[in-house]
Write a structure and sequence with these properties.
Blueprint: H1 9-19, H2 23-28, H3 31-47, E1 53-56, H4 63-70, E2 74-79, H5 82-95, E3 101-105, E4 120-125, H6 137-146, E5 147-155
Length: about 160
């Protein structure tokens, strides 16, 4: 990974490593987390269909990847946090051992390493994982190579302003 692309990555991964063991209780299963995820899932249902191969960036504990797998999609789910990937792997073995999900320890800056697994029908990232990137242009370039022409890419970023 190029330091010029993202100097925040190691620090962000370390923060998420510390959050990983309790992340589902802290956020995923919280009232606000569930409400936000319901909105995300509504958009994912509209964008992707059974049989699609989806690339997920910043997969965290695997909640969305496992959801899409239950809806008949195969998912390659990546995260830069070893702790998050560890939790995601445990969840898959406990909740959905037959799921069609592959979890990869991979930073967004290194997406080109997935070229052998391409093409994908679509890709997504939610809950602001992309806010940890210093530059989005290299990510856009990699997604342009990895996702089929006409494929859908859904990205969620946070801003400094909340529209009320």
């Amino acid at each position: 990974m190029s330091e010029a692309n993202n100097v925040a990555w190691p620090a962000a991964a370390a923060v998420f490593d510390r959050l990983a063991p309790g992340y589902d209780e802290l956020f995923t299963r919280s009232v606000i987390g569930r409400a936000m995820r319901d909105q995300v899932w509504e958009r994912l249902r509209r964008a992707f269909t059974s049989g699609d191969r989806i690339l997920e960036l910043n997969c965290g504990t695997g909640e969305d990847a496992l959801y899409l797998s239950r809806r008949g999609m195969s998912v390659v789910a990546c995260d830069a946090s070893p702790g998050m990937i560890e939790v995601a792997d445990k969840r898959r073995s406990l909740e959905a051992c037959e799921s069609n999900v592959e979890f990869h320890l991979l930073a967004n800056e290194d997406l080109s390493a997935l070229q052998a697994l391409a093409p994908f029908d679509g890709a997504f990232s939610n809950f602001s994982g992309l806010n940890c990137l210093a530059h989005l242009q290299p990510l856009a370039h990699d997604l342009g190579i990895l996702v089929k022409p006409g494929g859908r890419v859904l990205l969620c970023l946070s801003s400094r302003v909340c529209i009320g």
